[in-house]
Each structure stands twice: as C-alpha cells, then as structure tokens.
Amino acid sequence: MTNSTSSFVRLIQQDSKTLCVPGVTFGGGNGKMWVHNCRGVFQCHGATLGPNIACGYPPGKRLYHCDCDGPPGTNGAVARESGPQLRTFGVNSRPPWEDPYLLTVALQYFNMSWNIRLLERWKGCEGVELLVNVDSRFDGDLEWLSTSADHVIFSSNIHEIRAYNKMARMARADLIAFVQDDRAPPIGCEYLSHLRQMFATDRTLAVVGMNIATNTPWNYGNHIRYTHPARWWHGGGFKAEYAACVDIGPLVARKRDFFAMGMFDSNFSPPGRGGIGLDFDLSMRAWLSNRSVAMYHADSLPGIVRADGVVGRKKAAYYIGRSHWVHAYVKGRFDGYRSRYDWIVGRVKELNGEIGRVRVV
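RE: above sequence
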C-alpha cells in the first residue's frame, strides 16, 4: 500500500465517516483496488477510464479488495449503474448505519449576544454538530433558541472547564472542537476534510490547535510562540505542523483520546472562573501519554468585536478570584512537567522534520 499505486484509483464519492485518503486508505493497480477503513464510489483509470465502482460493501470489514472491471458484487465491488439498485451517500449525507456528524463544535458562551448570529455559522457546513453552553442569564442569550444549534444548554456560570467536559459527553462526532465565543468560524468548509485527514494520517494525533501554538511548553524558557515556517501536511495541500502546546479557541481533540486522558482538569479553576492553562495541560498530557499535538492553519473570519469595540474578550478578568490553592495546584502541575520539556521539544522537531516544507502535488 504505497502512494505510487494510488494514482490508479480516483475517489468519486466518499460514503464512510473515515476520510478516504489516496495511498493511505485506498489505492490500487493492475485491475485491482483496495480500501482500508474507507468506503465509497471510485473510478479506476489506466489507458481508459473504467466504470464507477463502489468498494467497501457490505459494511463490517476493515479491508476490502475489489476488481476494477469485474462483474458487479465481486469481492465487495459493485458497478454503479443508473437507477435505484445502489444507494450511495455523500460526505455530507451520512449512511444510516453511521453517526451523521464529522465534527462536534462545543461552544462556551457568556453574555456576547451580539455575536450569536456569527457564531451560528459553525452550522454553515454540513456534518457539523453544534452544542452551546449558555453560561449567562441575560435576555439576549435567549436568541440561541432561534438558531440552528443542535443543543443549547443553560447552565449557571459553571464556566469553560466544566462546560466543555459536559458537552464532550454529549458529542456524537469522533472529533470535538472546543470553541470560545470570541472566535469566528473558519472560512469555508475545507477545514473539515483537512482536520479529518490530519487525524487519519497520524493515529497518535490527539489534539489539534487552530489559534496559537508554541514550540516550547509553558514556562519553558521565555515561553516562545511558534515561529517556524508552516509546513504542508504530508502532501495534503494545507498547512499544519506539530507543536508542543496549542491553546483553546478552537482546540480539536479526538474524542476517544480526550476521555482516555481524563478530559480537562477541573482543578484548574473553581466554578465560574476561567481555566487558565487547561489547553496547555491537555497538550502536555497528550505528549506524555505517547500521543501528539499539532497546529492547523485555517483561514478564519476576522476576530469578533465586543460591544465596546475591542476585538476578543478581556481574558485578564478570568484571573480574578482565583484561590491560592488553585494557583498552587496549576504551578505544581506544570513544575512537574519540566523534567520532560527537553524530550517534548526534541520530539516536536523530529516530527516536523519528517513532514518537510515542500508541498507534494
């Protein structure tokens, strides 16, 4: 299964929730094709184009080998003809035996009603489940009830850590984007396929940031922001690279890894206060559990403007009222990571060296 054989097969329509990636989850040659954890309609091509072939059916196996020009139904391949005998499903229209969502957006909201319609744009792409935790009690917050959000939860100022953990338990997609209410959605819908390709090509990848990344962990040296040139992700046609830590807004996590790592640590803040460091802590736990962290560069809408005309939220307000115990706990947690910082920094450099900086087409 190499990239050299993938050019023989062209994807016409994806029917699986798992991303179909040439040379990774499907390929072929010499009149044959294969799919691995992928299902859809393909076209084999050599000197001439072959018929459309549905490979990966019936569901239930991980690996299928299909004949490009064989009779319908051979080895899991079905020649797609016009008419009702074969029903197919597109990327944004999930088969009935699979969850309908590609990504769950878990949005933490507090008294920013002027942004509700812009934040609703997360539902502008098919395959996105939008969960909203409304943590404030203002008349304008009720506008969420007239949006296309899938579920709106009204809480009592539990704030971000407990809200995100609550929404993660409700998420139906296998990827969860933890989003703040001062961050606009990406432009277009390509980010969905890019994120799914990232998680498909690296099974150790647990966390992907889409805002800020660092090439060193928190309180390491001068806490350097990531300054290396963005790389083309394994020839995927978009820019992403590994990073020591990424921050929330958005932060995308593979759901099974998020739960396996213990979710966000609620000891980082009392209810009603911001969980400063929750994202870098999750990044550290990912690296130290033999997982990895990356930064994806998505084209986003401009920053959301507050009612007073300032972009973003006054983050410093989150520090108010933080107890000495919480400060001591957070400091102790990151001090405990310090002995592994050099290893994490070296691992980031090693993985980024494998990506390279040249786009593969």
